[in-house]
Amino acid sequence: MNNLVTGKPVKILLVNPPYQYFGKTGGKKAQYTEPPLGVAYLAGYALKFFGDNIDIKILDAAALTLSLEETIKEVEKNKPDILGVTVVTLSSNLAVKIITAYKKTNPGALTLVGGPHVTALPYDLIPPADIACIGEGEETFREIIEYYQAKRSIDSIKGIAYLHETGKCMVTEGRPYLPSVDIIPFPARHLLPMEKYQHQYPYPTKNRNYATMMTTRGCPFRCSFCGVKKLWGRAIRERSVENILAELDELVNIYQVSFISIFDETFTFRKKRVMEFCDRIIDRKYDIKWACFSRVNTLDEELLKKMKQAGCIELQVGVESGDEAVLKNICKDIDLKTVIKAFDLIKNAGINTKAFFMIGNPGETPATIEKTIKFSLELDPTYAFYSILIPFPGIPIHDEYKARGFIKTYNWGKYNWYLDPVFETDTLSAKDMIRLRRKAEMVFYLRPARVWKAFIDAYRAKKMNILFRNFLAWLSIVLPHKKEER
Prior knowledge:
This protein is of the alpha/beta class. It folds into two domains: 3-171, Cobalamin-binding domain (Rossmann fold, 3-Layer(aba) Sandwich), CATH 3.40.50; 198-478, Aldolase class I (TIM Barrel, Alpha-Beta Barrel), CATH 3.20.20. The chain has 17 helices and 15 strands. The protein has helices at residues 3-6, 37-50, 68-78, 92-105, 116-120, 138-148, 228-232, 241-253, 271-284, 301-309, 324-329, 336-348, 366-379, 396-403, 430-445, 448-460, 464-478; strands at 10-16, 54-60, 82-86, 110-114, 131-133, 160-163, 169-171, 210-213, 216-217, 237-238, 259-262, 289-294, 312-320, 352-359, 383-388. Strands 2-1-3-4-5-6-7 form a seven-stranded mixed beta sheet, with helices on both faces. The chain has a six-stranded parallel beta sheet with strand order 8-11-12-13-14-15. Helix 9 packs parallel to helix 10 (301-309). The chain is globular, with a radius of gyration of 23 Å. The two termini are 35 Å apart. Mean pLDDT is 89; it is low at 23-30 and 482-486.
């Protein structure tokens, strides 16, 4: 007998599968994990509308370092009426196994999936899932709960794919984006194991309590390796500074957070808003440090000085390549002179930098990668992050590489930044990419001054164990490794 008949609250479980970009996906070797903001936002939105009429929980299997088998047992133990699983490409195989296992013991449960992978390939997980949520999920999730409560028909729900009774997969009318992101309640962090999110930055803070937040949705830029526009749209929708500060109050006063990562695609997109945000943080005398993502063509000296005063300790910037032609190929819309100028400004402001470089873009050759390595050494960011491109479904490069026959596997469990490439081009072999990524890591991080700085940073942060753990994680990237996927 389901809860509609008994009058009990609808039991809902939202699951973040046990996937890891470091370590073994589906296993128990987690080194890093981020709070799953997506499902926390869904839970907060559902509670706003349904209150005591739902009993909603979040299972962050990644943060809890559960194995796949343990995750399945936890799901079965909770016996939800509605089971939702958030899905990135790497975790899609795990989502299939979790839902399939639960359907065997609870065939009457409603199962749904959502996230970037599902938005790109809505049919990919139907079946075993009953419903796939396409794009922004809050309103769609609310309507799915109403459907379960028999208050609406399934075909009236916008922004989903579902299996029709005829056996045909159907897609409904597209879901328009919410006009204002201020109306979305804060993520339901009380449903997350917040004690598990401890920041790994080698910067001194009063504790290691860590949180992520988003202050905008959408991205107007054209980068062909990114799929965020498919999920959030091209128009940037900003939260008001007042709304952001209210969430900061919650993080500082309730969760005693000392370090925050702002996960906007480009937090510094509109200078006036960021300046106001910083002024308000300074006025409130928050004892926090924070980092954010930025673009080199959105920065100036005045802005960076204000961000430093407000506690910004690191800017994370996508450089991608040291070759102008490659930057043009990926529609990055920046040039190397602008990159150099921006990094000089950031360093002069006293803010640390994390630069992201990507290997395997269209037009890439061993020679262009060598130029990128050389450029990264000249740029000399605080940290450099070298990855091999993943042609995720839903991004323009995926379509290009698929059409040209470059993609070698569609086993999504292999779409991991730290496994071997899933593609080869006519100018670049998998062996070339692996070799040059390792070379980049080695020449950047094994410089004597860089090694010494790592020890000094860890000592100042009083976290030598983090230095050791990060070193082991780094070794797992640059040294030969077993091919693991689930």
